[in-house]
Amino acid sequence: MLPWSPHPSLLALSLFASSQASILSFDYIIIGGGTSGLVVASRLSEVSHINVAVIEAGDSVFSNPNVTDLNKFTAALGTEIDWQYESTEQKYAGRGKIAYHGGKALGGTSTINGMTYIRAEKAQIDSWGIIGNRGWNWESLLPYYEKSEQFVVPTVAQTEAGASYVPSDHGEKGLLKVGYSYGLLNGSFVDEVEASWSTLGISHNPDSNGGHVRGFTVWQSTLDREANVREDAARAYYYPFQSRPNLHVFLKTTANKIIWKDSTEIIADGVEITSANGTVSMLKAKKEVIVSAGSLRSPAILELSGIGNPGILSKYGIPLKVPLPGVGENLQDQPNTAITLQAQRAFNGTMAYATFGSLADIRINLPSSSSLKLWASTVSAAINSSLPATSLYQLFQIQYALLSRGVPDAETIIGTTMNFGLGPSGVVGSAFWLLMPFSRGSVHIASTDPKLYPDINPNFFLVDFDLEVQIAIAKWTREFWDTDHMRGMVTELSPGFEALPRNATDEEWGDWVKGSFSSNSHPLGTASMMSRELGGVVDSRLKVYGTKNIRVVDASVMPFQVSGHLTSTLYAMAEKAADLIKEDLLNVKL
Ligand SMILES: Cc1cc2nc3c(=O)[nH]c(=O)nc-3n(C[C@H](O)[C@H](O)[C@H](O)COP(=O)(O)OP(=O)(O)OC[C@H]3O[C@@H](n4cnc5c(N)ncnc54)[C@H](O)[C@@H]3O)c2cc1C
Ligand SMILES: *[C@@H]1O[C@H](CO)[C@@H](O)[C@H](O)[C@H]1NC(C)=O
Ligand SMILES: *[C@@H]1O[C@H](CO)[C@@H](O)[C@H](O)[C@H]1NC(C)=O
Ligand SMILES: *[C@@H]1O[C@H](CO)[C@@H](O)[C@H](O)[C@H]1NC(C)=O
Ligand SMILES: *[C@@H]1O[C@H](CO)[C@@H](O)[C@H](O)[C@H]1NC(C)=O
Ligand SMILES: *[C@@H]1O[C@H](CO)[C@@H](O)[C@H](O)[C@H]1NC(C)=O
Ligand SMILES: *[C@@H]1O[C@H](CO)[C@@H](O)[C@H](O)[C@H]1NC(C)=O
């Protein structure tokens, strides 16, 4: 026993210096054992001679009831398996900091999310190709949506409760179980909901996962119906394969930064990690480093490693490896506001009811396309020109084209105590959000300490049109509860007609929206897959520009918002990423 305890980092340094030979080395190192990272780890380690390491800051949550229990969505929020991030002050919303949640666990955010499985709209995925990403469109992603999925066909009773699907849109042989829980609310309420939407011109969509989301649907979820537990990325992609000798998971281990090879080219040599006991060491990557820490963290890891905006890196004295001003930019998130209502009776079941509408459905006129130039310059100025107005203008034109073609820009959902964690069982919640905001924000390091959180600034309501759409969705949702089918069944609790009367002005609606919204927990775009000229960070093989062997695979790479929820598309993207990596392994020698 030593008479004194050396500081853990000193100990690490001495171990490091004296035992180079004992440095663990792997073919691929994946930073982040989350939703996307575990898909890549699972698929790469199918090949027995490929060694894969996963670095995960959290622990296993295999038997944590806050994760497994289908009726406990929101229980995990604010506990130790939630990173509990927050945004910077939201000045365009007149608000302070907004809470951001993220799973800190093996399985990542899929262990704490709402389990909704709704894919993107076809035209949105096609837009990834339109901005120049070769090989990315709906047609080429659909096989991966299906590859990932193990759809569980609903029972007759579930079908009567509103479950529906189009067989040709689903895969049944994948690893991820998708379907309906036995706790789905049965009885006639679902028919009343459908009838109420029909009054407003919104028809039933028998399956929102076929590339067209518009309409009312009873959504499918990532769950294991027979086991009655959540299906997260670890349950689907890791635990069944955890005995593979070539798959190594480092739990409670933080990835600090990428370590570079001493070379004129930009080649990762490995990753610096901090173990649970505080020891700092290095894992060596023989082939590639794959960054999958999520859209709120992956850009920070790139910046700490020397990849990013030179102005930001120099502020922290980080040696520049690749100047890439798009790192951390293009952050897009949706504002979520909610109405709660007291129903005449208790609902003992899950309502998985979603409705998607276009701008025409919510009776909003698309402004003239001449607004786009102004929006682009407004956003560019707000983000210190990190993305030039000319790039934003190009991106906005594509987004605008989607809206003008009627791609849904509004989603409104209904849930009960069972799926929203609302408290008394007679309370119903209607949450809604704008799907494709024009506002853009950023995620950047605020320190050189990898344990400290980055600055997250989604710039909610920077573009006025976003607020206009959110207000229209709020009114549309209220209208739904005010049809002959619904009136009399419920009483609005919040905001309530006293706070926001029927004749409320748009200004009053706007104040309510800005004062009460939260993040919809769909942040993406912070290492966008698009050309370097546009401000992209990864190419169409998800490789970071300017580097030989670093990729990003997670929500950071999605260049635009989508009308579904993110995980379905992330599982598909990560499946495709694993194939791209395997393909490149055959074709390229480092
Ligand atoms: C409250 C909430 C509800 C949601 N509801 C839904 C829903 O119903 N349906 C849906 O489809 N989507 C939903 N989402 C969104 C969806 O779950 C996420 O977009 C998705 O899971 C993100 O996947 P990812 O692979 O990008 O990152 P993550 O799954 O977050 O994975 C990142 C992983 O990296 C780890 N990590 C981070 N930094 C480090 C580091 N430095 N070192 C080591 N490890 C690190 C994290 O711990 C985490 O495990 C919800 C999100 C939230 C927060
Ligand atoms: C589950 O969540 C509750 C709070 O919602 C918390 O008190 C409890 O400790 C959590 N359980 C675990 C195992 O983390
Ligand atoms: C409705 O759901 C309840 C609770 O899950 C169940 O006990 C009941 O059998 C269901 N009724 C029908 C007709 O399926
Ligand atoms: C800290 O943990 C790492 C990883 O488990 C281990 O290799 C190392 O020996 C530990 N160091 C100390 C000082 O306990
Ligand atoms: C804005 O960008 C310039 C040029 O890169 C830089 O010098 C300045 O520090 C940046 N300002 C902020 C607030 O980031
Ligand atoms: C509600 O449904 C659950 C099963 O989903 C059942 O265990 C419970 O008894 C039901 N409660 C009431 C009040 O019907
Ligand atoms: C709405 O109606 C109330 C009562 O009828 C009235 O006092 C109020 O001024 C009206 N508000 C607006 C904005 O018209």
Descriptive report:
By secondary structure, this protein is an alpha+beta fold. Strands 1, 2, 11, 12, 13, 14 and 25 form a seven-stranded mixed β-sheet that branches. Strands 8, 17, 18, 19, 20, 23 and 24 form a seven-stranded antiparallel β-sheet that branches. Strands 5, 6, 7, 9 and 10 form a five-stranded mixed β-sheet that branches. Mean pLDDT is 95; it is low at 1-21. Helix content is 28%, strand content 19%. The protein has a domain at 8-61 and 234-331 and 527-586: 3-Layer(bba) Sandwich (FAD/NAD(P)-binding domain), CATH 3.50.50. α2 (35-44) packs parallel to α17 and α5 packs across α17 (566-587). The structure holds flavin-adenine dinucleotide and 2-acetamido-2-deoxy-beta-D-glucopyranose (NAG) (6 copies). Residues 103-126, 294-308 form the Glucose-methanol-choline oxidoreductase N-terminal domain. Keywords: FAD, Flavoprotein, Oxidoreductase, Signal. This is Glucose-methanol-choline oxidoreductase N-terminal domain-containing protein.
Q: What secondary-structure arrangement, pairings included, does this model have?
A:
Blueprint: H1 8-18, E1 25-31, H2 35-44, E2 52-55, H3 65-68, E3 85-86, E4 99-100, E5 116-117, H4 122-130, H5 138-148, E6 149-151, H6 156-160, E7 176-179, H7 189-199, E8 215-218, E9 220-224, E10 229-230, H8 233-237, E11 247-250, E12 254-260, E13 268-274, E14 280-291, H9 298-304, E15 307-308, H10 310-315, E16 322-323, E17 335-343, E18 353-357, H11 371-382, H12 389-404, E19 410-415, H13 417-420, E20 427-434, E21 442-444, E22 455-457, H14 464-481, E23 490-494, H15 496-499, H16 506-516, E24 518-519, E25 550-552, H17 566-587
Parallel strand pairs: 1-2, 1-14, 2-11, 6-7, 14-25, 15-16
Antiparallel strand pairs: 3-4, 5-9, 7-9, 8-18, 9-10, 12-13, 13-14, 17-20, 17-23, 17-24, 18-19, 19-20, 21-22
Helix pairs in contact: 2-17, 5-17, 11-12, 14-16
Bound molecules: flavin-adenine dinucleotide and 2-acetamido-2-deoxy-beta-D-glucopyranose (NAG) (6 copies).
Cofactor: FAD
InterPro entries: FAD/NAD-bd_sf (IPR036188), Glucose_Oxidase_domain_2 (IPR027424), GMC_OxRdtase (IPR012132), GMC_OxRdtase_N (IPR000172), GMC_OxRtase_C (IPR007867)
Keywords: FAD, Flavoprotein, Oxidoreductase, Signal
